[in-house]
Amino acid sequence: MTSPLVFQEGAHSQLLHWLRISIEKMDARVTSLMAQHPGVSLGLSNLARRDQLGAAHIHITRYLPADGLRLTDLAAKAGITKQAMGALVSQCEAWGMVERKHDPQDARARIIRFTPVGAAWLNAYHESVAQAEQELCAAVGQNVATVIALGLEAYGADSE
Length: 160
Hints:
Elements: H1 14-36, H2 42-49, H3 55-63, E1 69-70, H4 71-78, H5 82-94, E2 98-103, E3 106-114, H6 116-140, H7 142-156
Antiparallel strand pairs: 1-3, 2-3
Helix pairs in contact: 1-2, 1-6, 4-5, 6-7
């Protein structure tokens, strides 16, 4: 029996197609909302408007807790290499979003933490995600949005 989610003419999954498009749309909407957020610094707002802050930079926002993390742990949580995360952190550090502080438990290690500018960015991120999710609910209906969220949560739960 063929899954209704698979195109008959090829191996492309409709589900994967719509997931990719939806992720790109959600990321673009969140970035757009953050660019307009009054709490975001003018510099970061301009970077977001010019599409110089993208999904890769959102990894830091998405995975860095308020009390900070080591670079290796941040990279692991984001599912990218330490080198790639190091480049992102360096860029965000140059923009004033994050800072590297000595780890009080290990003098060799550094903890990546949000600066006050980065904390405002993090707040704008949370508010923008909430608004984008409300817009999704308005577009597809609360019941459909709930089913999507529950299904994706169930499917991805064993990956965390």
